[in-house]
Amino acid sequence: MGMRISWAPQSSARPLPVISVAGDVLTIDGVVYDFSPLPEGAMLPRAALSPDAPIDGEARRVGGRVLVTIALPYRNRPGIVPTPAAMVDPPAGSITVPDLTPPPAEPEEEPSP
User: Tell me: the pLDDT tens digits for 35-69?
Assistant: First the structure.
């Protein structure tokens, strides 16, 4: 039993999701996704979830672990957007969602006369 949460950065004005984990249950923005009935080797297609689910692709159970990818919104980020590392077996409770907001630009220094 466990979970591996991967991230799929997507350009979006949506706020960062609020996520918590309890065993095979993932709660995203107050919506509960219970993967405990998912048998070993099975796949749950995204279409079987809520149409607004921020889950990118399907959920699978491999080696007893639920594998799920969550859409990670970002905005105002030019260039290549880094994909944060997956979270493997996060502890029960709220998890910290990676924030891809770019750091503020450093002010340019004026040249000395």
Answer: 999 999 999 998 888 778 899 989 999 999 999 99
Strands 43-44 and 93-94: unpaired
The 10s digit of each residue's pLDDT in 77-110 is: 777 788 999 999 999 999 999 988 776 667 666 6
- 48 three-state secondary structure: helix
Taking the C-alpha atoms of residue 1 and residue 85, their distance in angstroms, rounded to an integer, is 20
Please check whether residue 104 lies inside any domain of the structure: no
35, 24 contact by CB (below 8 A): yes
Backbone φ and ψ for 73, nearest 5 degrees, come out as: -70, 145
Q: Which SS3 state, helix, strand or coil, does residue 93 take?
A: strand
Tokens of 65: 């672990």
The count of structural domains within the chain is 1
Location of structure tokens 């290549």: 80
Evaluate if pTM is beyond 0.70: yes
Domain interval for residue 86: 2-94
